[in-house]
Fold this protein.
Amino acid sequence: MSELMIESLRAALPAERFSTSEDVLASYAVDQGPVLDRWLPAAVIWAESIEDVQAVMRLADRHGVPVVCRGAGTGLSGGAHATSGSVVLSLERMNRILEIHPEDEVARVEPGVINADLNAAAAKHGLMYAPDPASYKLSTIGGNIATNAGGLRCAKYGVTRESVLGLDVVLADGSLISTGRRTFKGVAGYDLTGLFVGSEGTLGVVVGATLRLRYLPTDVQTIAAFFPEVTTAAAGVLAVGKARVQPSIMELLDGHTLAQLDQDQGSDLRRRGGALLLIQTDGYGAGAEAAIIRSALAELGATVTAEISEEAVQLVELRRHSRGSEIDDVFRVGEDVAVPRSQLVHYIAELERIAAERGVGLKVVAHAGDGNLHPMFWVPAGQSEKIPVLDAALDESIEVGLRLGGTITGEHGVGQYKLRWLPLEQREEVLELQRGIKKLFDPKDLLNPGKALPERVEPQVS
């Protein structure tokens, strides 16, 4: 079937929008998530219009060929990994900002628009697009929508779903629908827009989005609070909450993360403390809010500084680079767990226990303002025999997070990598309802199969 599909694609698309070159196939086969099963796609297609996407989906429907959609490939859960017999549909060339309407405070964009480019365009009107994943300089709006991406500003402005008003979506059979609205409020019908956001390309192909913009802050205050150790820093999150101040950014970095950043970036963070709470307030009240936060954290024993201008920008950029993806001298496994904020201190203590009992290293960074942690377990590269121990530590960290009322993914999505954990969080009847939704939108299971939702496990008959 894929051979027939390829011949049909050759006839339907200009040569520059289609490739079967092995180098190209390899470069588009995976995203940045862990690879469980590596497959080369049968072809890579670069759509440049809605009509291109419709043509590809109509051919896929006719020939029964799976389609894996892709933006910039910055995802961390394997959501854009090619699957057996699939073609990869890249939307990166659909990168036009169609409209920015300052009075309505909305933007209309194609899916390949880079997050940072939209923000640069909105800033000219005194506006911003609030969701800001760490990959904002590279990741596309379409990919952000597919994974319901988060970011540093989630503490105040929420995840991607809170900024998506409407979508244009090509369905599995090639038909085009529009969902949602242009207004901030609207409750007509079921919330299909919210359903597509975070569906990881399994229900339809997002080809356009109407987005809510926010006011670009008139003032931003940056606070660096250094603590002796990480659990006290986590307690600082609750102290800020009790002060009833809402930061725009509240990020937590433990001592191991600070030391790694110093090594990689030439900073001196670890010398300043054993853990860092990096906080920003914004808007006209930023100064007053920052003063309240500094006082609350100082009472916990933090060394608190107000960072200015270039120092503040540098600290925030260091946080964006704190996942350590450039490290190649360790074996590591990391995750994206979220817990209720009241459990943040306890969960970090449990992570430290797991690491100590299993004899592995631990780094913790977190979007502490909303309880979303990215713990990473690691061993030196020369200790490959400990990789099963790393996997066991990761599994235990997921189980502990769920026991504390958490979730297996706060912002990266389920993708391919986390399928094994989803049944631990969601009961079978809930999973079955979702399978029914998937079948309604994609009856032939052509859209990103094997992602986001585990297959039904038939009970064994003895």
Observations:
- The first strand starts at residue 18 and ends at 19.
- The mean pLDDT is 93.
- The first helix runs from residue 2 to 12.
- DSSP finds 16 helices and 19 strands in the chain.
